[in-house]
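A.,

Following up on our hallway conversation. Structure tokens first:
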């Protein structure tokens, strides 16, 4: 800096120069510039969307990949928020909340979102990272968004295959119960035939005093017909394909499952005792799939009890409220399971009985798809305890892909 030297009488009596050594600043600026160039060279050649946001949630930088995804030039994003560039309201809310959380906590965050255009629907996973300086402060967030559409579609294919396998397992279960179902239906049908035959005989020679009997017999016909219809309905519903979830009462699912499986339990002289928690929280689940888990576990218990005497075959079914959900337990007093088999029991095609060994594998996949856990424990000196958990309906988890 050059400046005049002024005397007390305000006359210029000379000049003065002030010098600063700015070499370090220049080196720092050059390093920053070089680093920025390297960053941009890397970002522009990545297949992922790379962006930076400031504390006002405006785009500081976005690479050219965004044009391939959105059809808009990268420059049109600079200095604008997601709302200003026309992003849908639901995505604006998701991104604003995520960015604000990172700025508030200085912690990395991951989000998933779906971007829809006129041609297709794309699935993305994004990683939001605070760009810390040497003194651990930051004023920008680096975002890398990866297109995972193909992975999601592959997972959906896996889900479709396993859903088909689960459906085939249910049909196999019903096939194994055909004789018991036939016997169960035969009782009400036989009663219907008897009451109808008696009613026709009385009608042929009816008198006033026979009317109460006729009324009672026809009422029994209605009751037994309804009973047969319910048996058929339960079996048909259990074998139906299903992909929907809703808010359900776990105790009602347990009771319906025991009614469905009741004839098999009676045929094998198995006594089931229930200890169901009062007023359980509702779960968010596919009822048919959860019933399949229960039926698979009951069949497993029936097989384990085959070595017991007929007067000593017991199963305890219980539900217990836990933090964030519900736990369902099935405990039998059968032959038990050793530690080695307990490690392998959920593996596909592993079985200690004459079966395909898919029931428990499918059951675990269903429970995992509902964001729960399924496990087995040997119980004391004899018997086995199977437990699984399910989340509350309030959480309403997104569908997770079944995977064996």
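Then the amino acids I'd put at each of the 404 positions:
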């Amino acid at each position: 800096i050059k400046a005049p030297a002024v005397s007390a009488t305000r006359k210029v009596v000379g000049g003065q120069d002030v010098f600063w050594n700015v070499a370090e600043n220049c080196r720092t600026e050059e390093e920053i510039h070089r680093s920025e160039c390297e960053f941009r060279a890397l970002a522009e050649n990545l297949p992922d969307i790379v962006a930076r946001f400031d504390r006002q949630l405006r785009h500081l930088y976005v690479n050219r990949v965004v044009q391939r995804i959105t059809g808009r030039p990268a420059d049109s994003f600079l200095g604008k928020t997601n709302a200003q560039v026309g992003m849908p309201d639901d995505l604006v809310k998701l991104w604003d909340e995520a960015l604000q959380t990172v700025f508030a906590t200085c912690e990395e965050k991951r989000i998933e979102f779906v971007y829809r255009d006129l041609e297709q629907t794309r699935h993305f996973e994004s990683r939001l990272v605070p760009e810390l300086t040497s003194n651990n402060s930051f004023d920008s967030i680096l975002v890398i968004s990866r297109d995972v559409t193909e992975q999601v579609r592959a997972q959906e294919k896996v889900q479709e295959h396993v859903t088909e396998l689960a459906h085939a397992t249910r049909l196999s279960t019903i096939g194994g119960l055909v004789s018991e179902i036939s016997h169960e239906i035969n009782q009400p049908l036989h009663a219907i035939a008897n009451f109808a035959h008696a009613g026709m005989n009385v009608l042929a020679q009816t008198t006033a005093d026979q009317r109460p009997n006729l009324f009672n017999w026809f009422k029994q016909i209605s009751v037994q017909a309804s009973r047969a219809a319910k048996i058929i309905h339960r079996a048909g519903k259990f074998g139906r394909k299903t992909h929907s979830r809703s808010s359900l009462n776990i105790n009602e699912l347990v009771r319906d499952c025991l009614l469905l499986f009741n004839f098999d339990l009676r045929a094998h002289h198995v006594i089931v005792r229930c200890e169901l928690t009062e007023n359980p929280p509702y779960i968010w689940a596919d009822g048919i799939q959860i019933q399949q888990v229960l039926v698979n576990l009951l069949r497993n218990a029936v097989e384990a009890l085959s070595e017991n005497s007929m007067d000593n075959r017991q199963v305890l079914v219980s539900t217990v409220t836990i933090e964030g959900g519900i736990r369902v337990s099935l405990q039998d007093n059968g032959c038990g399971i050793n530690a080695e088999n307990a490690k392998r029991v959920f593996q596909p095609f592993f079985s200690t009985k004459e079966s395909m060994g898919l029931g428990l594998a499918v059951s675990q996949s269903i429970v995992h798809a509902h964001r729960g856990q399924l496990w087995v424990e040997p119980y004391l000196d004899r018997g086995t305890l199977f437990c699984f958990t399910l989340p509350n309906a309030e959480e309403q988890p997104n569908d997770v892909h079944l995977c064996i």
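The longest strand covers residues 121-130. Curious whether your intuition agrees with the design.

B.
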